[in-house]
Model the fold of this input.
Amino acid sequence: EDKVVQSPLSLVVHEGDTVTLNCSYEVTNFRSLLWYKQEKKAPTFLFMLTSSGIEKKSGRLSSILDKKELFSILNITATQTGDSAVYLCAGGTSYGKLTFGQGTILTVHP
Amino acid sequence: NAGVTQTPKFQVLKTGQSMTLQCAQDMNHEYMSWYRQDPGMGLRLIHYSVGAGITDQGEVPNGYNVSRSTTEDFPLRLLSAAPSQTSVYFCASSYSGTGNHNEQFFGPGTRLTVL
Done:
C-alpha cells in the first residue's frame, strides 16, 4: 500500500521566519512528488518534482526531491501571514494516481 | 474554461438516503478522481478513472460507486448514506493517466453532512 508521511503535523512561527516542511514517501511505480497549498478551500498546486536533486523555486517557496532517500522538503523563507495554510504533499504514480500525506498546518503570526 | 466543477456545494442527508455528487471538467482530461477530506487525515482517494469506461477503487471505496461514461463527467454515488460519510468531497482531474502528467486540478468541493 502506498504511503506518504508529512512532518511536522503543525507548525507555528512568526513573520520573517524560515520554515522547512518534510515529506517522505513509499509509492509503487513512483513518478512525481507534488506539493499543494490549501486555505479552507480546494488545494492549489505549488510544485511537481520528478528529478532528484533539482530545486524548484517560486518566489519565497522552494522544493527539492531526493529519490534515493524517498523524501522531499518544502522551504518557505521570510514567511508572511498569507502563508498560513495546510501544505499537502502527494506521491504520484506512473498512471496518474496520487497518494496524499496528512498535511502540515502552518500558522504564521504577525 | 470552467475547469473542474462540482455540485452541490453543500448537502445534508439522512442516514440511509442515496445521492449523487456531480463532477465535470472541460479540459479534456483523461484522469479523474474523487477524494474525501476529514480533519487531520489529508485527502483520501475514493475512486479514480484513467479514461471513459475505466474506473478503479482507491483507498476508501466502500459505500461509494462511480461510473465514467464520458470524458467530461465523473459522478460519485452514495448508495445508503451513513454518518461516517460526513466529509468534504473533492473531485480532481489531470492531463493523462498514463504517466505524462500528475498535476491534478481540484474542484471547489462538496461539504456533505449525514445525520
User: Anything to note?
Assistant: The interface with chain A takes residues 30-31, 33, 35, 40-45, 48, 50, 58-59, 90, 92, 94, 96-99, 101-109 of chain B (CB under 8 Å). The two ends of chain B are 36 Å apart (CA to CA).
